[in-house]
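Crash report, auto-generated. Payload:
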Amino acid sequence: MMVKLVTIDAKGMHYTPLNQQVRRAVEDGADEVVVQNVLGQRFIGDGLKGDATIHVYGVPGGDLAMFMSGPTVIVHGNAEHAPGNTMDAGKVVIHGSAGDAVAHSMRGGKVFIRGNIGYRGGIHMKQYEAQRPILVVGGSAQTFLGEYMAGGLLIVLDLDGAMKARGIGSGIHGGEIIIRGDVDDACLAAGAKKVPLTDEDRRRIAPVIREFAGDFGLDPEPLLNADYTRIVPASARPFAGKYTWE
Amino acid sequence: MCGIFGVMDKRRQMMDGSGIRQALSIMNERGSGEGAGYAAYGIYPDYRDCYALHVFLDNACESKAVVDATLEQWGAIEHDEAIPTYDQPNLRAPCTPWRYFFRPDPSLAPGSATPEKDVITNLVMQINRASNGAEVFSSGKNVGVFKAGGAGSWPEAVADYYRIEDYEGYIWLAHNRYATNNPGRWERPDPFNLHDWSVVENGKITTYGTNRRYVESFGYTCSNFTDSEVITYLIDLLVRRHGLDINLAIRALAPPYWEDIDQMPKTEQDLNRALRFAYGSATMNGPFTIVAANPDMMVGFTDRGKLRPMVVGECGDCLYISSEEAAIRAMEPNVESIMMPAAGEPVIGRVAP
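Recovered output after restart:
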């Protein structure tokens, strides 16, 4: 079967007509949508369903793939704030870096970022039954990584050894944060604790790391065999004594 | 929200206002169409030795007479004229923007290390406090602010109202306002300026009351109920009057957390403790990104919890500080480096001497 490809030139276009064109292309059965000359247009792929692949060339604006349920969005450039915001299913692949609050409240699917992310990556990611979101960062993450995290899997590979994140897992009460290399205790927020990465954990994350390496043309073997720090909630109610008195 | 943008050419090569107009308009989503403004350094070479006073006049007759009288009391008016404006379909101007090129009389501030700037500070406070239909909204040498607020004040409309592409500067700041808890008055949007310093801010200073009382105790009067007004006066106080280096001034305004200070080597701990004790009331809390400029530098910094975005770009001699990367690329598609500095790491670009 022939792949149906639609190309859109976004140069100088406001995000509303641009997103209408993307939506229409997917509704009309496009398998691949290529969006050229993107510059700051927000909300690309928002609420989109189906299994199309959207290629974004340029720097898309904030809230990329928000509420998206199914498609794959591949960004050939950097992204701004909150790509994968409350995303439901599908995949976002970013070949550059992204801003603050990446995968904000994400509830399913995958967000893979080759470069670095800003502050509050994975803030309030969540999970429910089979819905289990995955965020993988190739470079470094900043402070308040996994803030208020309620579920899902967050992996930081720190390929450039530039991690400076502090306050990791501030208010975490579900899910797990796995960071390549050691993490100083002083960088953990109250409510988060380090536990050893078991062989079972390693088997569980191996397919995710292989997929990430495959998307970005990296050799997976050194990453599979590396040392990791696993960070999980110290309790299901980290602020039980802070805001309530019982 | 709000969108802010700053660009500086380190070799003082001039840029007209069309580039920053385009950069700011890329971030229209960050504003609510109720205020925008621009500040530029180097725009008045013919009057480079005069202080350029930009004034909003409610009435070009009575209000202006009051300003004229005040200025004559503090120095000499070299030249004055209406700031050229061009009607925009959806922008309704309730006042007349006017500019004076003014020479303050330094003998009126005896004992001051910076007598001209003290005179300018005093007369700006005097005119703005009086609420008599005139407001000075920029007052520096070879610098000017152009701004408008209220319905229809989108970045492009404000830029076109003043035709900022007709001005050439080596530092430009811009601000696109998302009106939150104050009504969008004409004179309220950023940038704010007091002689050397201009400020644009994206944020909400929760310590506004404390900061305002502190700066007012040094003789400044805050008549606009706006964060950026207080920030402008704080920077003037710390840098010009207290003689702090810009790094220390920023550290006083947005200091490291106590637990981070505890981790520092002894001498650095002592310095940071002393700064926090001395300038506790100048410390700003709440979410913010601030870009400030004077004739020699442009600086950008965020709140300690990094609750607002700041992207920095470099290309050739130009330094860019922006709320969004796309705005930098709109002005310079070939930008060479893009980075997002950590909270508490100020970005300081200096003009070559």
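Post-recovery validation: Chain A touches chain B through 22 residues (CB under 8 Å).
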